[in-house]
Amino acid sequence: MDMSFFLRIGRLNTFEIRNNSFLLGVISPTLYVYVILVQYLNPSIVVLPFAKEGFALLFLSFGLLPLTRNRKLLSYYGLFVFTAFFAFEYFLVYTLAENNFSIDCLLGAYILLFGGILAINNSLLLIIFSSFQLLHVFYRLRMGGFDAITENAVLSSALTLFTYSFIIINGFTRHRRKIESSNTVLERKVGERTQDLMKRAKKLYDRNKDLEDFAFLVSNDLKRPLRNILSLSEWLTSSENIEDNLKGEKGEIYHDLLIIQEQVIQMDMLINGILNYSLHLEKEKDLEKVDLSTLVRRIIMVNSSENCHIQMKNVFPEVYFNESQLLQVFQNLIQNAIKHNDKPQVFIDLNVTEEDNYYVFSVADNGPGIEKKYHDKIFKLFQKLELKAHIDSIGIGLALVKKIIERNGGKVWLKSNLGNGTTFFFTIKKQ
């Protein structure tokens, strides 16, 4: 017989080890106190010398054994529990016989017998334990020369105790096997789901990698002509000829070239910002000090025209933010106000107020307004309230604004009524 047999009958799950450890730890002092109390109430009772001290220490040592966290020992923990109760129950039957199976000893012994039966979790060990205890009781009764009434009473009560114990243990065993079967099925399903999730995660990773490569490719293709335009505009607006270029008819052309140059710079920042943000290459915590007055003036310069009037109605503060993302926020809100305006003259007011630990920024227009039932819809990706050929929008601007602001700890909302213009609000934390 190899060690695998003992490992199989001695193995307990974590829950059973914890319960038996607690039970043995409780029995140790209880047994010691109980024997002292019985001896005090009945001085004539016969108890083996040092038995209570020895078994109290035995139960305590086995109860504390799981605290060692020794896996090899805990693999056989069921055998330790069996050994402790087998030796103890032998002592109990011996003590019962020495005290002529008196009622005060018999009741306590049966309680402890029942506890020992419940503590043994292996069916084979339980059969061995019960059989030997019954044989031991029968042997002590026969050897003690007790009368038939006492003998029959003790045997019948012991048989009843073991019978009901087996019924309880059998029901518990069936229930445990059912749970183990359910756990096996559940573990198999979890394993299958895990494998499926791993396959999906790999596919998602591959697709994201393809998307990342595609985004870099597209951004480089977009940046190439932008760099060419920027180089040409910088050459045409070189500081060497600045005085001559500002004179006469050249002044208007020079001013237009400066606007083109600024638009190219902003376009490059927008491409970088959208690319980095969408691919999570640019984190919100990478903050820098941004002079909003300067940034907003540059945005106003490239978006203003004869029929579009944009003004700052207050002094804009310096904030700690990601500059390219902040550019996207103002640019998208202003472009949104321009594209969807139905008036011959567009007026856009930019303002800022302070509220507790936040700056509250607003972008107000004189456009057609938005019905209240659409106030949530417009912040969703690819959502548009109108389909017009002359409006070159795909519905990502406001969704991107909301995403940027909320990821930086702010919030976005709007106030608008149909026909009365729209005001978008967003907050940025003060530093």
Structural notes for this entry:
This protein is of the alpha+beta class and 431 residues long. It is built from 13 helices and 7 strands. The chain has helices at residues 3-10, 14-41, 51-64, 71-75, 77-98, 103-119, 123-144, 148-236, 242-245, 250-278, 292-303, 323-339, 397-407, and strands at residues 288-291, 308-312, 318-321, 346-355, 358-365, 412-416, 422-429. A 5-stranded mixed β-sheet has the order 2-4-5-7-6. A two-stranded antiparallel ribbon has the order 1-3. Helix 3 packs antiparallel against helix 5 (77-98), helix 10 packs across helix 11 (292-303) and helix 10 crosses helix 12.
Low-confidence segments, given as residue ranges, are 381-395
**Order of strands in the sheet with most strands:** 2-4-5-7-6
User: Which series of helices and strands comes N to C?
Assistant: HHHHHHHHHHEHEEHEEHEE
- Structural class from helices and strands? alpha+beta
| Cα-atom radius of gyration | 43 Å
Approximate strand percentage: 5-15%
Number of strands: 7
Helix content: 55-70%
Please work out how many helical segments DSSP would assign. Answer: 13
Output mean pLDDT.
Answer: 78
Q: Using the alpha-carbon principal axes, give the shape.
A: rod-shaped
Q: Note the main sheet.
A: 5 strands, mixed
Distance between the termini: 75 Å
List the helices and strands and how they pair.
Blueprint: H1 3-10, H2 14-41, H3 51-64, H4 71-75, H5 77-98, H6 103-119, H7 123-144, H8 148-236, H9 242-245, H10 250-278, E1 288-291, H11 292-303, E2 308-312, E3 318-321, H12 323-339, E4 346-355, E5 358-365, H13 397-407, E6 412-416, E7 422-429
Parallel strand pairs: 2-4
Antiparallel strand pairs: 1-3, 4-5, 5-7, 6-7
Helix pairs in contact: 2-3, 3-5, 5-6, 5-7, 6-8, 7-8, 8-10, 10-11, 10-12, 11-12, 12-13
